[in-house]
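Fresh eyes needed here. Kindly weigh in on this sequence plus structure tokens:
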Amino acid sequence: MRGVAYSPDGARLARAEGRDVVVCDAVTGFEVCQFTGHKDIKSVAFSPNGKLVASDSENKTVIIWDLSTGACHSTLIEHLDRVVSVAFSPDSKLVVISSGDQTVKICDVSTGFCSVDACQTLEDRAFCGYFA
């Protein structure tokens, strides 16, 4: 197991396990759903509205998973190197993705469109990596 994240309401816990994202009830530990098909998942993040989970990977992609359908919502392929972190915006409409290729991109969750490089300087990169 690599990455873990609580849902915004604290009711669920998502964990990264190799090729799977497993979502469990935070109190009982019982599995609620499992998303399979992403390679070398490093971390996971819940959207603030609690409807989506993002997983990032060493295979240069982020997958957005839909908790209501149990399916892949979208796959974001924009980086030249492994993805190292992903976070949702407070309104759940955007994700910010940082990569080993030294870029930070902001992507629209509904369209999959990503900015070329959201932060151009090293000082900006530290700020832009977080929406909190």
Notes: The first strand starts at residue 4 and ends at 6. The chain has one helix and eleven strands.
